Amino acid sequence: MRAAVMREPGSVKIEEIDQPAPAMGEVLVRLVATGICHTDRSMVSGALPAPLPLVLGHEGAGLVEAVGSGVQGVVPGDHVVLSIVVSCGCCYQCGLGNLSICEIGSEMSPGGLMLDGTTRLSDGDEEIYSLLCQSSLAEYAVVPANSAVPIRKDVPLPVASLLACGAGTGFGAVARRADVRAGARVVVIGCGGVGLSAIMTARVRGASMIVAVDPSPRARALAEKVGATHALDPQRDRVLREIMALTGRGADAAFDAVGKSGTVELAFQCVRRGGDVVAIGIDDAANEVQLDLYGLLMQKRVTGTFAGSLIPRVDIPAALDLYMDGRLPLDLLISETYSLDDAPRLLGPDFSLPPGRAVVCFAEPKETP
Amino acid sequence: MAFFKNAEEAYCYIGKMFESVVTIPDFVQATKGTGLVLRLNYSDPDTVILVNFPAQEVRYGEAAATATDATVDLYMTCDDAHRFWLGKLNFPVAMARKRLRMEGSTAKALKLLPLTKPLFAAYEKMLTDDGRTDLLELA
Fold first, then answer.
1. CA dist., res. B116 & res. A236, Å (int)
2. N or C: which end of chain A has fewer CB within 10 A?
3. What is the model's pLDDT at position A360?
4. All domains of chain A in start order, with CATH
5. Least CA distance to B107: which residue of chain A?
6. Facing residue for A107 by CB, picked from B96, B105, B113
7. Would the CB atoms of A110 and B106 count as touching at under 8 Å?
8. CA–CA separation, A250 vs A268, rounded Å?
9. pLDDT (tens digit, 9 = 90+) per residue, A284-305?
């Protein structure tokens, strides 16, 4: 099969490698669409450590081709979203319902391994590592069955793919990690795919004021299109002053989808006493955060989320129902589509990703009856 | 059989490699203000090295083991440490397979990431200069 392979930081090539086969508890999926996420680019640039060689891609959707032994709830022909929530279903964290920080999945998937500690990808005798148990910038992917989420078949798979990572993260950050009630005043810092999906989810939850913060005019325009009531440019506006003026006492919740130096601190300063701050993004894993202790004593709550803390088989179908109802305009996030051959360029330092999502589309396979 | 005969040999190469780099201006600049105090806890043979980057200081043995200012602790075997400092250990995979373990600030530990290539080069040069091709071949 063809796949986007990184053998050293900064270099991605489309290579012919072996088609993987699913082991027990795993699913083989033929990809139809895969979003390009900043995490892919951070791994290519070296800002995030990557197991090498690696097949990139972790925002995929496609059709189930085959299932390994013991798999229940997914059958060949199903349309699936490949969630980056990789869970064993058995560990302490899974028992608590914290699937996104599963003790096995959160160890194995950053190390390029499947849940059993081995790899499925290879090129002859050479082992190739997978990205977040997925590696969906390839014609086929093998994923743990818990990560293959069956979805309704009337949803376009490029739209559905966004919920695998970016849109799922923004959706879950609002729906699962903060107290966003009807009438809430919300700030979203960073209006890429994650931030935009947080904005549309806040709107679905009934937020009456949603302030989007992003230096890109295109991103701010998109933010307003998906539900932001106000949009601020951090390079021009006094963001904190504007938010205080708009909200009176500070926002009820602030979401940082950027993760650069100072952005969590800005979110912290934006919220009212007792408000929620949710860190969603990370620009560089070496970044640190410095907060006022007094703000914590004033009961501001700071948390973070990996993958939106989603319960994939509950939240992803729910989000797609909202999309089909016209209430969660995920399709607006797809700004441009590409082919797999474009992946090296999309992941390179010279390409500027558009606001929303660039999505790689594969030739759609004919469904088997 | 382990690559290093004893802790002294590990100190002699891995420790000295750090001693040789902590005062290099690029390292001083890159680690300035990071608060990165790295304690390397190696086993087989048992070896403890503390590298205080801001203070440009390396401590060994008991003085390293009992230090209270470490911000990151790394645990692995001496053999894996040798492979690692030669750039031959796949760090994320080794973490996943629990061949190495880290305690403390991940963010501080990752500040070392841009510096690993010069560290790998310094370690290899030290072994080469000392005629330890046996250690280079073992990895």
1. 38
2. C
3. 97
4. 2-166+309-361 (3.90.180.10), 170-305 (3.40.50.720)
5. A286
6. B96
7. no
8. 10
9. 888 999 999 999 999 999 999 9
